[in-house]
Amino acid sequence: MHREQLELLKRIQALEFTATEFNLYLDTHPGDQRAFIDFSNTVRELEQQKELYTRNYGPLIVDDTARQPCWNWIDDPWPWEIEY
Amino acid sequence: MWIYEKKLQYPAKVSKPDLRMAKYLITQYGGPDGELSAALRYLNQRYSMPTNVTKAILTDIGTEEMAHLEIIATLVYKLTKGASAEEMERAGLGGHYADHDNALYYVDATGNPWTATYIQAKGDPVADLHEDMAAEEKARATYQWLIDLTDDPDLIDTLNFLRVREIVHFQRFGEALDLVQEYQNSKHIF
Amino acid sequence: MNDMNPIMLRLAQAYVPFQTYVNRWDPMKALMMGTIFPELYRPYDGRDRRRD
What is the pLDDT of residues B51-80, one digit of tens each? Predict the structure, then answer.
């Protein structure tokens, strides 16, 4: 896996992790509007980065494959095979 | 339902194959305080939770535990990659080789298979949340003992990530417990 | 419950203080630390501390 692809993948991991943290926090603090805004902004940026990744390197979820030139969902590397 | 995302939650890596550590680390795959136990415990307990907060937190933490299960699997996969039968046997994994070759299996550090007796669903939200908080503390301690058993900085890096997740989950279960107790106490005015 | 009054605490009942969101680490730093919340980060110093 090339360095640019790995860096984009790590960026996605970081943004998705941030969204997960806000998700768990908001589950027990549903009225915290500031956390909700930060969650929403994080998810917006995450969606942009995922779209960029999918366009350049392939699908992250199976539905992404509908906008790919062919059935490349099965292509390697699978997550456990990636060397970071 | 769940949708698979073809990526790990954390960029898990190891410096080198290490069968000795794989034998210990597998306990977080199929051991009593491992990620499988956590995921199945939380995703099962949510059906008897009384409030939306507790239904949500068990669903979302249970889902994150599935991602941690995949991280542990990846670490074990990388630690055992390319190991021969002789190397497995020398590391005390001869029995594992006989039953599973290099395949992963849900066992603890001494080879005992995963069992549903590791987890409970009492139907009492306070009792269940106490179990969940204890589970997070036991998993945190397990990650600490695993960190003590290795010098691999890359492996320690990922174990540290998973260890801190246990602390965050404890906090969230604790907040959910506060809210459940408040909810129950408000229903019984003496 | 957010501003928990100690006088209101009941016996034979466990409490965890509620977190208040103040600040956060940026996404890449948060991923490395295991949380976005600095106040929830607890480092582990390893085996040396256990040998006393």
Answer: 999 999 999 999 999 999 999 999 999 999
